[in-house]
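User: Structure with copper (II) ion, C-alpha cells only please.
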Amino acid sequence: MTTGTPDPPALSPIGRRAFLRGAAVAGGGAVAATLAACVPAGGPVWTFGPASLPAPGGSPAVPSPSPAAISHAATPAASTAATTDPNAAAMNEEHDRSAETRVKRFLAGEWEKAGPYGNQPLEPTIDGDFKVFELECTAFEWRIDAELPPVNALGYNGTWPGPVLRVTEGDKVRAIVRNSMAESTSVHFHGQALVNKMDGVPFVTQPPIKPGETFVYEFVAKPYGSHMYHSHHNAADQVGRGLLGAFLVDPKDARLRHDRRYGISQDIVWVSNDTLGGFTINGRGFPATKPLTAKRGERILVRFMNEGQMIHPWHLHGMPMRVVARDGYYLGSAEFTCDTLGVNPGERYDVIIDCDNPGAWAFHCHILSHAEGPQGMFGMVTALIVQ
Ligand SMILES: [Cu+2]
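Assistant:
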C-alpha cells in the first residue's frame, strides 16, 4: 500500500524464482500458469514480502529486518520489547504466514476455484424491434471465496453480479423479470432516462413484483454509458445480497464508442459491494477476486460501479488512471488523471489505463479496513498484472 516509507530493497533473482515456485506449488489452474507466464523470469513479481521466503537452501534469500523492527524503529524501547517478547514474535510470524498464504492462494487462481463467476454477457433474443432479456430472481448459495462457507445470496439468473446486459443507444429494450424468490422485488435501470411507469419503484411507479409473478419492463435505451440494474425494493438488503448487475449502453454514433475513441483492448466491469460477504469486487473477496491481466502496451478500460453503501477509493499501484466518464457522461475537457479514485454509492466511473509498467500491481480500496488486516489482505483487493 502507499506509505511514506522508501521502496523495499530490490529482490535477488533467487528470491524471485523461489517466490514464483512457491506460487506454482501452492495450486494449479490456468490462472496460475497465466500469472506465471505473465511474469518474466527474474522479472518483478508481487512485491509483498517475497524477500522473507526461503531460498532453496532453506535460509532467507535476502536478509531483511522484521516488520516489527521496522514499525517500531522510531521507539527503541518498543522495538526491544517486540523482538524479545516470544508472544509478539509468534504473532508476528503468524501474521506473515497468513498474509503469504492468502497471496499464494490469489496467485494460484482462487477465483476459478470458488465456482461460478458473475458478469457474464447475456445475449438478447429479438422480438420485432425489441431486444429481449429474461431475468429470473432467485435465492442461491454464493461463494465469496473458495474456503469460506457460501453465503445466502439473491441474484439475477443465478450469479452475483447478474449478467451484463449490453445494448446500443436507441434500442428498444424489453426485460422480462420473473420473481422466483420468497420475497417481493422490483428492478430499477439506474442511469436510464425511463418513462415514469418503467422506473421500478414499488408503490411509486408500479406494484412490487410478488413471489411467483412476472413484470415486463420496456424502454428505449438512453443515455449511453456505464449504467446498472438493481432491486429497488428492500434494497439495502436485496442489493446487498446480490440483486445487481451492469447495464451497458453503447453510443449510437460508433465514433463515440470507447473502443474507437480510445483504442482499448479490454472492457472490464468492476462492481463493488459492501454488505453480505463483506467487501467485494464482482461478488468476490480477496484472495478469490479475479486479477486483471494485460500485455505491456495494452490500453484497457475499467468501469467502476458502486452498488454498496460506502465510498470506495480505488487505488492502482504502478500506473495512473485516466478518468474519461462519470455516470456514463464523457468528461470532455474535465477529464483528469489520478491514482486513487473515490467512487460513491450509485456512481460509475470509466477509466483508461495504459499498461506500460510490467509487474504485478496491487489494485485495491484505500480505506484500509476494507482491504487489509491482521490476517493479511482480504476483501477489496485484486491486482493488475502487466506482462
Ligand atoms: Cu472500500
